[in-house]
Design brief:
Layout (H helix, E strand, L loop, with lengths): L1 E2 L8 H4 L10 E2 L2 H4 L3 E5 L10 H15 L7 E6 L5 H12 L7 E5 L15 E5 L10 H10 L1 H10 L8 E5 L5 H6 L3 E5 L16 H23 L1
Parallel strand pairs: 3-4, 3-6, 4-5, 6-8
Antiparallel strand pairs: 1-2, 7-8
Helix pairs in contact: 3-4, 3-8
Bound molecules: ligand AR6.
Length: 231
């Protein structure tokens, strides 16, 4: 991609090249044109049944704490519908804290189609994973593994076989992966959140002291993982 420095004046005279002027062509790699952006779903609040109000506090507080470490990089909380309660709670709480809405915002869309369908460039996405890091199940985990094809399963296995609650694992996607070449996603970060659903492993039986601690750890691990892809 070639780019010339943007015009700094509204006057044509100042920007029109003259016969003897040298024009410097600056070559910028396509990856550098995109602001590093992490799109993440609300961890644990659907299948894992975590309280939405508590989760929204934790999302806003951990995002606020991380933004200063991230340079110009952006954090985007994603959900499927305009009626998403977690998106409204987070949006309202972030606005009350005057968090820069250009750096941390909410977005409605399928996390596997943010560029192609929503026009949003995100180079990293998070997955609300299960402890076995297996494809399938439901929710966002099933959607991400399906969209990424077998490449994600192989790349995940190369990094880890299991995940503890509160932890995250950063998985680089090969360029052959459909999520990489169609959506521009270079990494998936699997995160395991706390589980409040008695029908899923490691249920915390409504212990929100433990649950909140683990959810906070999960977002901290996620944002640290994202930071490692930015540096
Ligand atoms: N794009 C964006 N957001 C989505 C999408 C999508 N395609 N699909 C779901 N969400 P969940 P959990 C939102 O249930 O509660 C799995 O089976 C959804 O509306 O996926 O952490 C795993 O294997 C919600 O806001 O994750 C685990 O066993 C958020 O993503 C278990 O579920 C998280 O919902 C993890 O449960």
């Amino acid at each position: 991609v070639s780019a010339v420095p943007a015009a700094s004046s509204s006057s044509n005279e100042a920007t029109t090249p003259k016969a003897n002027d040298k024009i410097e062509i600056v070559r910028v790699s396509p990856a550098k044109l995109v602001v590093p952006t992490l799109a993440f779903p609300s961890i644990s609040t659907a299948d894992f049944q975590f309280d939405l109000d508590k989760a929204s506090d934790i999302i806003v507080e951990t995002a606020e704490a991380f933004l200063p470490k991230l340079g110009s990089a952006r954090l985007v909380l994603v959900d499927l519908s305009h009626g998403s309660k977690i998106l409204s709670l987070v949006k309202a709480k972030a606005s009350r804290k005057n968090i820069d809405s250009g750096r941390f915002f909410t977005f409605v869309g399928d996390i596997t189609k943010l560029h192609s369908q929503g026009g949003l460039h995100c180079n990293v996405i998070a997955n609300a994973a299960n402890w076995r890091l297996k494809s399938g199940g439901g929710g966002v985990n099933a959607a991400i593994f399906k969209a990424a094809g077998s490449d994600l399963e192989a790349a995940t296995r190369a990094r880890a076989n299991t995940l503890l609650p509160g932890k995250a694992v950063v998985v680089p996607l090969p360029s052959t992966c459909p999520l990489h070449n169609a959506e521009g996603i270079t990494h998936v970060i699997h995160v395991l959140g706390p589980n409040m659903n008695p029908n899923r492993p490691d249920c915390l039986n409504n212990d929100y002291t433990k649950g909140c601690k683990i959810l906070r750890e999960a977002y901290t691990s996620l944002f640290e993982g994202f930071l490692s892809t930015v540096q």
